[in-house]
Amino acid sequence: MSEHALTLPASATRWRKPLPGFGLGLGLGLTWLGVVVLLPLAALVLRSGGLGLAGWLRAISDPRVVASLKVSFGTAFVAALIALVFGAVVAWVLVRYRFPGRRLLDALVDLPFALPTAVAGITLAAIYGQNGWVGGLLQPFGIQLVNNLTGIVIALIFIGLPFAVRTVQPVLETLGREQEEAAASLGASRLTTLRRVILPELLPALLTGFSLAFARGLGEFGSVIFIAGNLPMKTEIAPLLITIRLEEEGGVTAAIVLATLLLLMSFLCLVAINAGSRWLSHGSRADG
Asked: Picking from 112-121, 172-181, 238-247, which range would have the lowest pLDDT averaged per residue?
């Protein structure tokens, strides 16, 4: 081969940016993020900081505020755990099995994303109410699924299930069956294979799905108020109390403090969960 054939043109050896207009795109993206997301959050934090220590203590010491926060965080946590378990099962079925109606089931998973929350709340209340398909069957046994904490958990599971499915499903699709077949050939039982092979790979995705379902449940409003009963100190969620305080005379201060508390606690929970997910991901790569 001649020396001339090995010589590349200068334009071919010149380094090219992978994305044309990257600087402009990055600037526009950060500007849009700041205006739409960061600016309103910063305004809320600054407004709450201007209330002073007395305003904060007065709002935090309100028993109704404390009760609403307990209801919101408690039900969101329980619902996210349940949605995570059943979401992982649904994702496993969609990835590992082929059956009639699989594509329809896959499409139905995304239904809570597109369904208006008010419609979801009315539908759930009609199904699980005293005269509903499910609630009517349980009513003779004294089991009530609406106007209590159970109804809130049901609504939040409905909303959070797609997040769990869609975060676990891609990981299962890339996982493949080779590692499972290798473990089985070495004599590992199904339980051992699940515990030592599959779960370590799924843990980061499971934590991500849990955090998304949990965060979505904390801010859910429309689907909950139709099924919770909205009883103060019992089934009243924090987003509903914020709305009530805003409608009251002189209640803006309490609403701002409650919204800021909900924001900060949600942010801390998400940071902790995401840090744990990254730690597990790095640990699994180091083991591999």
From this structure: 172-181
* CA–CA distance, 104 with 184 (Å, rounded to integer): 32
Burial classification of residue 261, based on how many CB atoms lie within 10 Å of its CB (0-12 exposed, 13-18 middle, 19 or more buried): middle
- Chain position carrying tokens 């969609």: 94
| Residues listed for the chain | 288
pLDDT at 205 over 60: yes
One-letter identity of residue 127: I
| Burial label, 219 (beta-carbon count in 10 A; 0-12, 13-18, 19+) | middle
pLDDT digits 0-9 by tens, 8-45:
455 544 555 555 556 666 777 777 777 776 776 677 66
Question: Which element (helix H / strand E) includes 114?
Answer: helix 111-114
Are the C-beta atoms of 271 and 211 separated by less than 8 Å?
no
Asked if residues 77 and 222 have their Cβ atoms less than 8 Å apart, the reply is no
d(CA 195, CA 82) in angstroms, rounded, equals 19
Enter the pTM of the model.
Answer: 0.80
CATH class of the region 55-283 = mainly alpha
Q: Can you tell me the distance from the alpha carbon of 102 to that of 112, in angstroms, rounded to the nearest whole number?
A: 18
Backbone angles phi, psi at 43, to 5 degrees: -65, -40
Spell out the domain ranges in the chain: 55-283
Under 8 Å CB-to-CB from 231, ≥6 apart: which residues?
Answer: 147
Residue type present at position 148: N
pLDDT band at 80; cut points 50, 70, 90: very high
Distance CA 128, CA 155 (A): 10
